[in-house]
Specification:
alpha+beta, 8-stranded antiparallel sheet, 8 strands, globular
Length: 168
Amino acid sequence: MTLKPEGKELVITRVLHAPRELVFQTWSEIEHLEQWWGPKGFELSHTRLDFRPGGFFHYKMQSADGSHMWGKFVYHEIEAPEKIVWVNSFSDEAGNIVRAPFSDLIPLEIQNTLTFSEENGVTNITLHSVPVHASDEETRFFEGMFDSMQDGFKGTFDQLEAYVGTLA
């Protein structure tokens, strides 16, 4: 399935001091994703992973105060250990796509392309995110959230870096 991205891309890069195959594994296996995915201060639970094109990752994120959100990835392309393309959405407990609990203007679907490159045992990951099937208003809102999303992904990638450090 080919999606037509809309608007400007959010681009985030991160350098991880670990081999590419290991970093890829942390994105492709449930026992790894459960250890680091999500915003800082949230715990993942009720996770299910079917890591293949057409498969999905469905998860619940819960904060220390008990509030929670559900999310879902639908995988479109996987080229181990070089690239993963998925569409990310907020979801309900059953996996149906729903609006973000904190804004009606966040696009329902965001396509993410993550690439992995390695040099001398150091892996560079680059994430490109762009809304799909979004209204003009949702696209503008997404583009206006770039600084906030950079901060959010920084926290998530900090957790990934710390976790990879325990494995390498």
